[in-house]
From TrEMBL:
GO annotation (BP), single: xylan catabolic process
Protein's UniProt keywords contain Flavoprotein: no
Protein name in the entry: Exo-alpha-(1->6)-L-arabinopyranosidase
Signal peptide bounds: 1-26
Family named by the database record: Belongs to the glycosyl hydrolase 3 family.
Organism: Thermocatellispora tengchongensis
InterPro entries documented for this protein: Actin-crosslinking (IPR008999), BXL (IPR044993), CBM6 (IPR005084), Cellulose-bd_IV (IPR006584), Fn3-like (IPR026891), Galactose-bd-like_sf (IPR008979), GH (IPR017853), Glyco_hydro_3_C (IPR002772)
SMART domains: CBD_IV, Fn3_like
GO molecular function: alpha-L-arabinofuranosidase activity; beta-glucosidase activity; carbohydrate binding; xylan 1,4-beta-xylosidase activity
Keyword Nuclease among UniProt keywords: no
Classification lineage: Bacteria, Bacillati, Actinomycetota, Actinomycetes, Streptosporangiales
UniProt KW keywords: Glycosidase, Hydrolase, Signal
Main function: Catalyzes the hydrolysis of a non-reducing terminal alpha-L-arabinopyranosidic linkage in ginsenoside Rb2 (alpha-L-arabinopyranosyl-(1->6)-alpha-D-glucopyranosyl) to release alpha-D-glucopyranosyl (Rd). It is not able to hydrolyze alpha-L-arabinofuranosyl-(1->6)-alpha-D-glucopyranosyl (Rc).
Domain CBM6 span(s) in chain numbering: 868-987
């Protein structure tokens, strides 16, 4: 989901409560309420009792009560990425009354445990708490959970990197299956909750996210993007998918036919698929794909989505559009019945129509925030941490000998939440955790290492003052700089900073009219607590409001602060020239203070990182992977003052830590890890927990190592560890331990297997150190020879093992030949080729300890037969083309411009004629050249002229005679103008 948090109007809420509290007794004995009957029979019975209007009403996110049948409200969509989101409740005066849900580490942190068993326990805890919140208020917290996010972390600059698991589909599949299965519960027929995978498909950029198209050639779609979604559906851990905002090959994901076909083919269970928030309106708005909501909603339903998440609680636009579509013949009532049957199937499995709510019906509010869940949160946060570097055994710190510690950095005294976090029931900061670990006898010095400043307006010579208590509008007027005139400056990179008022410890933010110090942390959809202090040529500063761009659109063209007649600061100028000018007085130098604190300490722990609402998040990608400039300078100052410096990086994505890797003895990474962050960090730093987290993404050295964020072809662009051939800063799977592990010889149960065979790979792993520890044994494969480009390495299996000092365990991992298959574009099928595979085990993708060869007896992909109709998208290589929608309903085509080409390698030819289905909306003609051997210098076999067809979906057949199209050739279709081509033959 990706809109602001849903709110219920008072009138709607009262209506829903009435529906919940007044079941009709006459309905109690109807067949659909008999749990002894088969599920399908119960669903059909209830479906047959609903009127058409009642059925249509169930298609909206807020499914209203049907009182005559005793059916209550059902709300889809409770966010639950790392705990139940938005779990803070408020009374009528806006005061927090509950915030006791468990906040686990962010999703990328959960995956860094590489521990499906542990993540299953986390998912189960989240499922229990979702039931508890549902018991508290089903109007707000439904049992259809929108989690996990399984979009692959293909590009670390993605704003929502924190929400996903990994750049690898196998690891993502394992973790998502574990988390979803925990939330779903162990009963094979009933659901504790109904997990929904987000966001189908290839959703990995926020820039223009509702209008950009993810180009997925068939191999990438099958082997990579679909592969992340399939495991949780195939294992019945998840009960449906949410369609993404983006387009896929030119078609909005909201109307992808895959939703009703491919995805549903992965399981025999009934799935319940939903739209993302507001996505139905995008079809007629930003995407302009359909002329009316009637046509858009009809197409959405036919594509395989069952529920419309749109217009908040107002179902009227949706239901009206569906009724109109029925009256126009765009939909049949059977289409509505199909979707409602899917909806009801999930509601039945949730126990809604069973006595007592079914096997999970007794889970109540007491399940929320239990001591067991809090302990699990601490354990998970510790196991998620990754030791990136540990020169000279700097870590762990000995609590008996480390008695003077400096805890430094902007994240030492806070625990940040993110957009999809629950409310923190309590927060243990890094400083809190370290103090608790060392006890009262230790000396712990703390500083956030940030500058404290005062701003003096140049014209009047007076200072900016903030309010005390709950805060107040900032004004210029003070003649001296007391605490109400001082602000702590937090640097989040690229000039963006936040200002925390010393007067009350609250952050300054814009409230659509003035600037007020009233927020506990930067927050909200537009994050209106962001500023830039821009130095002017005369040495003064102009203050620029830097809240996210869409907020600017609402607040007008003025981005710079000015001073009103009464001294109040507001937005009053579009440029720095018209802005108020300030001198910046540095009351306390953060880096200097940090260096002083670090001098003489036994250890200096510097905690830096990101603010989840600022450094990339939903709707905003990152443009830099570097630490904030001020944070980098802080690390350098502390390192110069104390050689025993440990850097803790707390953020949600890979970071370019080149200087730190070269100069700092020890580096630990953690995601924003929830309420137990500080305790977990202290557990790791002081050795109570031996770190065993592993990276789930490649950490690159520079943004220059990455192509454009909109480049989705990981094969051609050599993206992710699968295809990247460069030297990363930290490899996929990297993570150190306080102990060491030795790998014995690799043993294969067989050196040769058939296409339907399985091999067991065994290796003895010994803990050769003096501490108990956990090793993540990772098994990779590489196919040495193939018709098609193959990954450099590909993860096929892994296992996390716990070993005492000196202990040896045999780790056995199974690999099926089917796991080694890839998508054959020549025949549109999975293929296991006859080939030798390198089977590798090790501690990361770059730390391979043992290797063996496995021969697979499969098949040889035959030469292409272009005499049969061939889809243009099934090319082997290309230049410049984009993938587009063949029609609005289904099919992919190639969109080309002058100079573009597509290749069909190894084609067996005996052809005299080229025939193609093409479209050209522009006036005039274009052409398709058929060449052999090379797209530029290759022999020209023929040329087909493409006339204007007047519309991109209006295809015509063109032909051309061929000369010399014999033998085995690499065939190129070279385009001389704008056109679309869907299929062709050389016959």
């Amino acid at each position: 989901m990706s809109s602001r948090r849903p709110l219920l109007s008072a009138a709607v809420a009262l209506g829903l409560v009435a529906g919940l509290c007044t079941p009709a007794r006459a309905a109690e004995d109807l067949p659909f309420r008999d749990p002894a009957l088969p599920l399908a029979q119960r669903v059909d019975d209830l479906l047959g009792r609903l009127t058409l209007d009642e059925k249509i009403s169930l298609l909206h996110q807020y499914q209203p009560p049907i009182e005559r049948l005793g059916i209550g409200l059902f709300k889809t969509g409770t966010e639950a990425l790392h705990g139940v989101a938005w779990s803070t409740d408020y009374d009528d005066n806006g005061n927090v009354v509950t915030a006791n849900g468990t906040v686990f580490p962010q999703a990328v942190g959960l995956a860094s445990t590489w521990d499906p068993e542990l993540i299953h326990k986390v998912g189960s805890a989240v499922g229990d708490e979702a039931r508890g919140f549902n018991a508290r208020d089903p109007r707000v917290w439904g049992l259809n959970l929108w989690a996990p996010v399984v979009n692959l972390l293909r590009d670390p600059r993605w704003g929502r990197n924190e929400e996903g698991y990994s750049e690898d589909p196998h690891l993502t599949g394992a973790i998502s299956t574990a988390y979803a299965a925990g939330m779903r519960g162990p009963d094979p027929d009933h659901l504790k909750t109904a997990p929904t995978l987000k966001h189908y498909l290839a959703n990995n950029n926020e820039i223009r996210r509702d209008t950009t198209s993810s180009n997925l050639r068939p191999r990438v779609k099958k082997e990579y993007d679909e592969a992340a979604f399939r495991p949780a559906i195939e294992s019945d851990a998840a009960t449906g998918v949410m369609a993404a905002y983006n387009l896929v090959n030119g078609r909005p994901a909201t109307v992808l036919p895959d939703l009703g076909e491919e995805v549903r083919s992965w399981t025999g269970r009934t799935l319940f698929n939903v739209t993302d928030a507001g996505a139905p309106n995008n079809l007629v708005g930003s995407q302009g794909y359909y002329p009316s909501l009637t046509e858009g909603n009809a197409a959405t339903l036919k594509a395989g989505l069952d529920s419309f998440t749109t217009d908040n609680t107002n179902a009227e636009p949706t239901t009206t559009a569906i009724r109109t579509a029925l009256s126009k013949g765009l939909l049949a009532e059977s289409d509505v019945d199909t979707a409602v049957r899917h909806i009801l199937s999930i509601r039945f499995r949730l126990g809604e129509f069973d006595p007592g709510g079914g096997p999970y019906g007794k889970i109540g509010e007491s399940a929320i925030g239990t001591p067991e869940h809090r302990a699990l949160a601490r354990r998970t946060a510790a196991e998620a941490m990754v030791l990136l570097k540990n020169a000279g055994k700097t870590l762990p710190l000995d609590p008996a000998r480390t008695r003077k510690v400096a805890v430094i950095g902007p994240l030492t005294q806070t625990v940040y939440t993110d957009w999809y976090s629950g409310g923190l029931p309590y927060r243990v900061t890094p400083l809190d955790g370290i103090k608790a670990r060392l006890g009262s006898g230790a000396s712990v010095t703390a500083t956030e290492g940030v500058d404290r400043i005062a701003l003096k307006e140049v014209t009047t010579g007076k200072y900016v003052s903030a309010g005390t208590g709950a805060g107040a509008a900032l004004k210029v007027g003070a003649t001296a700089a007391g605490d109400t005139e001082k602000f702590d400056v937090f640097d989040w990179g690229q000039g963006v900073l936040t200002l925390r008022s010393v007067a009350n410890g609250k952050y300054v933010g814009y409230n659509w009219s003035t600037f007020v110090n009233d927020q506990d942390q930067p927050n909200g959809w537009f994050v209106m607590q962001q500023f830039k202090l821009e130095e002017q040529p005369d040495g003064t500063y102009a203050a620029r409001y830097a809240g996210y761009e869409k907020a600017h659109d609402w607040s007008g063209p003025n981005h710079y602060l000015t001073v009103g007649p009464d001294g109040t600061l507001t937005l009053g100028s579009p440029t720095a020239e018209g802005a108020a000018r300030f001198t910046k007085e540095v009351v306390a130098d953060g880096a200097r203070g940090a260096a002083e604190a670090a001098k003489g300490a036994d250890a200096a722990v510097v905690v830096v990182g990101s603010m989840p609402f600022i450094n990339g998040r939903e709707d905003h990608d990152r443009t830099s992977m570097a630490l904030a400039e001020g944070q980098s300078e802080l690390i350098k100052a502390v390192r110069a003052a104390n050689p025993n410096t440990i850097v803790v990086v707390q953020n949600s994505y890979p970071t370019t830590l080149n200087w730190e890797q070269a100069n700092v003895p020890a580096i630990v990474w953690t995601s924003h890890a929830g309420q137990e962050t500080g305790n977990a960090l202290a557990d790791v730093l002081f050795g109570a927990v031996n770190p065993a987290g592993r990276l789930t993404q490649t950490w690159y050295r520079s943004e220059s190592d990455l192509p454009d964020i909109l480049e989705y072809d990981i094969v051609k662009a050599q993206r992710t560890y699968l295809y990247y051939k460069g030297d990363p800063l930290y490899a996929f799977g990297h993570g150190l331990s306080y102990t060491s592990f030795r790998y014995g010889p690799l043993r294969l149960s067989s050196g040769t297997i058939g296409a339907d065979g399985t091999v067991t790979v065994s290796v003895d792993v010994t803990n050769t150190g003096s501490r108990a520890g956990q090793e993540v044994v990772q098994l990779y494969g590489h196919q040495r020879a193939s018709r098609d480009p193959q990954p450099v390495k590909e993860l096929h299996a892994f296992q996390k093992v716990s070993l005492k000092p000196g202990q040896t365990r045999t780790v056995s991992l199974k690999v099926r030949a089917a796991d080694l298959a890839h998508w054959d574009v020549t025949r549109n099928k999975w293929v296991v080729e006859s080939a030798t595979h390198d089977i590798m085990v090790g501690s990361s993708s770059a730390d391979i300890r043992r290797k063996a060869a496995l021969r697979v007896r499969g098949e040889t992909i035959p030469a292409r037969d272009l005499s049969k109709p061939t889809r243009a998208v099934d090319f082997d290589d290309y230049q410049g083309v984009e993938l587009v929608d063949e029609s609005k309903a289904r099919g992919d085509a190639v969109g080309a411009s002058a100079g573009d080409w597509i290749e069909f390698a190894g084609s067996a030819l005996n052809a005299r004629t080229f025939t193609a289905q093409v479209a050209r909306p522009a006036a005039g003609t274009a052409s398709v050249q058929i060449r052999a051997g090379d797209p530029v210098r290759g022999r020209l076999l023929g040329t087909a002229t493409v006339p204007s067809t007047g519309d991109k979906y209006a295809y015509t057949t063109v032909t051309a005679p061929l000369t010399g199209a014999t033998g085995k050739q690499d065939v190129y279709l070279v385009f001389t103008g704008d056109l679309r081509i869907s299929s062709f033959t050389l016959g």
